[in-house]
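Homework help thread (please don't just give me the answer)

Our assignment gives two proteins as sequence + structure token strings and asks us to describe the second one. The first is just a warm-up. Here they are:
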Amino acid sequence: MLRKKVNSLENNKDSILSVHTDGDIEYYSITALEELGEIEHYILPKTFYDKDEEDADFFRLCTLFDFNFNKIVTIRNFNYESIEINSYKDIEVKAFTETNSNVCAITTNVRKAPLIIRNKGILNVIIYDPGKKVVSLAAVNMQQTLDKALKALVLELNIKYNSSPLDLKVVMISFGQSKVYVDDNTSNVFKSNFHNINHCISQTDEGLEQVDICKINIATLLEVGVKYENIIDIKNKELPEILANVETIYTIINIK
């Protein structure tokens, strides 16, 4: 199926997303990843004709992207309450918090099994090793950080695939508000776990502390050796209106 790139969306003179069209359907790719060639990373908003039940929306996406429905990995119903992963390949699933299972991380070679994520109010951090053709995903609801998950993923990539942190590319897209209120105990834990995260913490006019979880995640990646220039951090305000204002987003990842 022919997919046509229409144009790029501009933000601060840098191209953030490219918009594609296939008939009446528009979807977006990360412009900074296009240099990798073999990696496809698309984002679609959930529309009114998508049906959650009986996998109707996943069938539609498989048709759009020429995927075999029986060979995809899906992360679905990923919200504040539940995670459901369906896989036709071996896939590792890890929970990094005992009290809240809404933090998960997976590592998979998606060359033969495209990954489709349906999420609501979730921050996805996707780590690529372009040379090894391996993808890792850490995902969390917008009330938590991913410091433990990200450290574990980078270490796992190094051990299992001999991936150097210096070679990794990271895509992080935050839908909605990335700042959360924290109490003094939580704030002190963050401060003790990092060398310097003062730039991640701010105070409101009422004296309450807020932590920017996206900045915390970036600080984590830098501490484990990922290059800052290889981290693509896309904020809600940088997204086109159709993505910024919709609750449920699909992320499609495929390695040719």
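The one we have to describe:
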Amino acid sequence: MNVNTKKIIAVAVAVAAIALLLIALASRKTTEGIPNRTVAATIFPLCDIVRNVAGDDLTVACLLPPGASPHTFEPTPSVIRQVSSASVVFVLGHGIDAWAETLADGAEKPTTTVDTNIPLRRALDEEEEEEGHDDEHSDGVDPHYWLSIPNAKLIAANVAADLTARYPDLSAHLSANLDRYRSELDRADVQLRETLTLTGSREIVTLHDAWYYFAEEYGLTIVGSFVPTPGREPTPQYLAALGQAVSRSGSQTLFSEPQISTDTLQPFIHDHQLKIAVLDPLGGTGDRTSYIKTMLANAETIAENQ
């Protein structure tokens, strides 16, 4: 039984075990005449974007705890309560936060996928990674589209459109918040691009395949990823091909991630004389307390280690 199958079973068991709690919470009504002012979002970058658009008028519940990985997360009762208390759950879709969609369905809560107008890229073909496996990209789309500031601007616009439809009395505030935040994102995008001009080599090796939107937006080339599918060990054949690609590129750094174990990296790192630096696709911890700070920190990490 592969990791993804175990994860699906674990989520199903968790949902079944607290079905009565879900039903009770889902059936609660807000006080008559007072709309529900709570919304939810799945991962920290999306939560931060939603919070910037919502401002102080709405409460935003962030479902994935800081430091957790959406690839391995198993929802807890507190997360289920957050879903059941929300008027809508904002999701990235395309398999990365399917656990949230499952919970929302169970609680009879609507979900909004925030990818409208975003140019989505295909996930790597199996022959480009490893053959014969299931992966998180359930519909063949790479779901890591938040790792591009221009895409974040589109996400923010999608969130604003959804919230305006749900809370028309807040339309003026939401519009002003969106304009302000898009200006902040524009300034951050300029700063990020300036930081990456300091990069020596523009070819990078990553831990897993989260960084293609970032690379395409900011003029980088990904030589390869050590773990083409989270939760599945790379085969010896795959690692041999990756090692050859690394040698041809002259890359000296493998960029890991704080949410994924690096235990299996050590032999590969030793064999190819690589150092490790950390890129964080999610943020929400340390000094990465906003989406913008997380993106700028990642650019600085690349510039300092290439």
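TA reply:
I won't write it for you, but here's a hint about the kind of observation we're looking for: The two ends are 39 Å apart (CA to CA).
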